[in-house]
TrEMBL record:
Residues 10-74 form the ATPase F1/V1/A1 complex alpha/beta subunit N-terminal domain. InterPro entries: ATP-synt_VA_C, ATPase_a/bsu_AS, ATPase_F1/V1/A1_a/bsu_N, ATPase_F1/V1/A1_a/bsu_nucl-bd, P-loop_NTPase, V-ATPase_su_B/beta. This is V-type ATP synthase beta chain. Belongs to the ATPase alpha/beta chains family. Residues 355-454 form the ATP synthase A/B type C-terminal domain. SUPFAM superfamilies: P-loop containing nucleoside triphosphate hydrolases. It comes from the Bacteria. Keywords: ATP synthesis, Hydrogen ion transport, Ion transport, Transport. GO terms for molecular function: ATP binding; proton-transporting ATP synthase activity, rotational mechanism; proton-transporting ATPase activity, rotational mechanism. Pfam families: ATP-synt_ab (PF00006), ATP-synt_ab_N (PF02874), ATP-synt_VA_C (PF22919). PANTHER family: V-TYPE PROTON ATPASE SUBUNIT B (PTHR43389). Produces ATP from ADP in the presence of a proton gradient across the membrane. The V-type beta chain is a regulatory subunit.
Length: 482
């Protein structure tokens, strides 16, 4: 039943308060009519007895305490969805921004979604190919996984997001449908235009749905944006049997909006001023990724967040790390060296990759290769630390080999620019890098695997190593000693 109330008890920023309200529901949508006939929308965010707090989507400018009419619709916020949303651009409330008119469907969907029953979940298997070596080989993105990207101010996370959208696909032998839901929160106008133009120029817009909230849009819309995007993703996955990749950027802007609303409501702040329920709020978004029984589709998430002051212990990345299944960390040092994408592989990990790679999905040697690449790169840092103390000329042949491995790893493996590499190309490149090291150093690999893939000649050809080069002598000397 719809109820209409005339007058307000209080206006505080983007919030209005009413007393003596009957049968209001949490998250219920309301319609607000101003004295001049203008209408706005809002939603109930707090109920205290018969007093309710309402977030106004378009802001409270022009509202009167005595002549404002508030109508409770009796239902939560819903959006219309159909498969025709692919290729469309919407604002954070699900309203069209592309001038192509409204979406018409037989059913409207509650943007708040519903929690996935843990019993109905299916363990994520198989992978999503991104074409980026550092991700595909070392932090593989698995279907149904939530794998965030931790970035910092000034880093190239926007470019990385665009590249993932352009290149992401299912495995080459899959005939299943794949699409991307892209949500941008609190971004500048030029960044929003960059995203849209990049997708259109790459001719991938037909497989993308965009939800855009720019910096000067109402911050209430920033709260709604990821929920609208995830509702669209769930519809495409569970109603239309598609595999959906959801990219959410920037989750830090979302959390800042949440902190502002919490302060407006007078709530007691938690760590660094964020509300005490930040963890559960983020969980309500991240846990909407997954695969459920008897569903042919899946929802995979890549939330992107900028770490304030590059602090990985800040509440936003800290809580995100607790909820999600790994992280991809971008490095300011690599970025300053001109390496793109600047993925810092040592703190990065994908907790589910072991079950979505291997002979059935990628290649039989994938897991062993990734383990050895990680271990060898960690040894590179030790060699660099030692060289900074005693000088590179005083290093033994093995440490010098690791420095060469690190040099080629940064130059060829990490720094790939906008190249789209197949899984086969990436794995072969990994073996060429390991072939720079003597066989005696490959202690995480089985001898049968080494015999099959270890190839110093291929490494010398790829990295343009001549027989007079120091790398050649180190490889040959190490192999002879073995």
């Amino acid at each position: 039943m719809k109820y209409q109330y005339i007058g307000l008890d209080e206006i505080n920023g983007p919030l209005i308060f009413l007393e003596n309200v009957k049968d209001a529901s949490f998250e219920e949508v309301v319609t607000i009519e101003l004295k001049n006939g203008e209408t706005k929308k809002g939603r109930v965010i707090q109920i205290d007895g018969n007093k309710v707090a309402i977030q106004v989507f378009e802001g409270t400018t022009g509202m009167s305490l005595t002549e404002t009419k508030t109508t409770f619709t009796g239902e939560p916020m819903k959006i219309s969805l159909s498969k025709e949303i692919l290729g469309r651009v919407f604002n954070g409330s699900g309203e069209p921004l592309d001038g192509l008119g409204n979406v018409f469907s037989e059913k409207r969907f509650d943007i708040n979604g519903s929690a996935l029953n843990p019993v109905s979940r299916v363990y994520p298997r198989n992978y999503i190919h991104t074409g980026i070596s550092s991700i595909d080989t070392l932090t593989t993105l698995i279907r149904g996984q939530k794998l965030p990207i931790f970035s910092g101010s000034g880093l190239s996370h926007n470019e990385l997001a665009v590249q993932i959208v352009k290149q992401a696909k299912l495995s080459d032998d899959s005939n299943e449908e794949f699409c991307i839901v892209f949500a941008a929160m609190g971004v500048k106008h030029d960044v929003a235009n960059y995203f849209r133009q990049a997708f259109e120029e790459a001719n991938v817009m037909s497989k993308v749905v965009m939800y855009v909230n720019v910096a000067n849009d109402p911050i209430i819309e920033r709260i709604l944006t990821p929920r609208a995007a995830l509702t669209a993703a769930e519809y495409l996955a569970y109603e239309k049997d598609m595999h959906v990749l959801v990219i959410l950027t920037d989750m830090t802007a979302y959390c800042e909006a949440l902190r502002e609303f919490s302060s407006s409501k007078g709530e007691i702040p938690g760590r660094k001023g964020y509300p005490g329920y930040l963890y559960s709020d983020l969980s309500s978004l991240y846990e909407r990724a997954g695969i459920i029984k008897q569903a042919k589709g899946s929802v995979t998430q890549i939330p992107i967040l900028t770490m304030p002051n590059d602090d990985i212990t800040h509440p936003v990345p800290d809580l995100t790390g607790y909820i999600t299944e790994g992280q991809i960390v971008l490095s300011k040092e690599l970025h300053q060296m001109g390496i793109y994408p600047p993925v810092n592989i040592l703190p990065s990990l994908s907790r589910l990759m072991k079950d979505g790679i291997g002979a059935k999905y990628t290649r039989a040697d994938h897991q062993d290769l990734a383990n050895q690449l990680f271990a060898s790169y960690a040894r590179v840092l030790e060699a660099k630390s030692l060289a900074s103390v005693i000088g590179e000329d005083e290093l033994n042949d093995i440490d010098r080999a690791y420095l060469l491995y690190g040099k080629y790893f940064d130059e060829y493996f990490l720094s790939q620019g906008n190249e789209n590499r197949t899984m086969e190309e990436t794995l072969n490149l990994g073996w060429d890098l390991l072939s720079v090291l003597p066989v005696s150093e490959l202690n995480r690999l089985d001898q049968k695997v080494i015999n099959q893939f270890y190839n110093p000649e291929s490494a010398q050809k790829r990295f343009k190593i001549t027989h007079n080069d120091i790398a050649s002598s180190i490889i040959n000397k190490g192999n002879n000693n073995e």
